[in-house]
Amino acid sequence: MPGEPRGLWRQYVVPRLVHGACSLRVITEQRRRIVPEAEGVVLEVGIGSGLNLPHYDAAKVRRVIGIDPDPRLLAMSETRRRAAPFEVQVIEAGAEAMPLEDDLADTALVTYTMCSIAEVARALEEVRRVLKPSGRLLFCEHGRSDRPSTAKWQDRLNPLWRAVAGGCNLNRDVTRLVEDAGFEIAFLDNYTLPGTPGLLGFQYLGSARPR
Ligand SMILES: C[S@@+](CC[C@H](N)C(=O)[O-])C[C@H]1O[C@@H](n2cnc3c(N)ncnc32)[C@H](O)[C@@H]1O
């Protein structure tokens, strides 16, 4: 509840922590690997403070539609939105029910967001609906480790982590989520980010097409 310590933490501290963590150089390096692949009309799910905007290839992108339920993070995106050499529209809403028409986007981009969406399976179904049948889903996420001992610790620590980290989950299997939502993986790179603990640093970077 806003006004209570937990509400204040989520309202004022979490957005700044999220922006700070997402600005780390090691994360920026991952963005550079995936964001320039986007083309045409782009649906960016969980656009947050807009940190992907400078990494789009302006020669390929016509318009970015960013959706995010957090007004504080959206406000932080304003400078980058204004600097973008293409049209950027933001919608304050959760991805579980997007006020967007079917078959609208050529690309859907999701970076470090599948961990935080409360109903992630439903959100990915929505992504599939809004994406053209010929479109492509690009993702770069942290999630469930491929090392069973690390995954076990991710499961144990997840409730605590989720409470302090604004709803972020440590242990989501991104490949399975994408496939279960009706996509076929076209490319996937799994690796642990250098200098990060396996609990948080196991990456899923890839692309998928609607089946
Ligand atoms: C760790 S941040 C990543 C932000 C951005 N994608 C990036 O790479 O910098 C997670 C984002 O997911 C957003 N988010 C949380 N729940 C969501 C939902 N239901 N639908 C869409 N985005 C959501 C948060 O508001 C936040 O902006």
Short description:
The chain is of the alpha/beta class. 37% of the residues lie in helices and 27% in strands.
Structure notes:
With 211 residues, this protein is an alpha/beta fold. The chain has a single domain (5-210), classed as 3-Layer(aba) Sandwich (Rossmann fold). The chain has helices at residues 5-22, 25-34, 71-76, 78-83, 120-130, 148-164, 174-180, 198-201; strands at 40-45, 61-68, 87-92, 105-111, 131-142, 183-192, 202-210. The protein has a seven-stranded mixed sheet. The mean pLDDT is 95. S-adenosylmethionine binds next to helix 1 and strand 2.
Mean pLDDT: 95
Largest sheet: 7 strands, mixed
Counting helices, strands and paired strands, the structural category is alpha/beta
How many helices? Answer: 8
* Domains (count): 1
Model regions low in confidence, pLDDT < 50 over at least 5 residues = none
CATH homologous superfamily descriptor: Vaccinia Virus protein VP39
Shape: globular
CATH class: Alpha Beta
The CATH topology annotation reads as: Rossmann fold
The radius of gyration is 16 Å
E-strand count = 7
Major beta sheet, strand line-up:
3-2-1-4-5-7-6
> Proportion of β residues?
25-35%
* Distance between the first and last residues' Cα: 41 Å
Could you state the order of secondary-structure elements as H and E? HHEEHHEEHEHHEHE
Task: Show the helix and strand layout.
Blueprint: H1 5-22, H2 25-34, E1 40-45, E2 61-68, H3 71-76, H4 78-83, E3 87-92, E4 105-111, H5 120-130, E5 131-142, H6 148-164, H7 174-180, E6 183-192, H8 198-201, E7 202-210
Parallel strand pairs: 1-2, 1-4, 2-3, 4-5
Antiparallel strand pairs: 5-7, 6-7
The structure holds S-adenosylmethionine.
S-adenosylmethionine binds at residues 18, 22, 45-46, 48, 51-52, 67-70, 73, 94-96, 111-113, 116-118, 123.
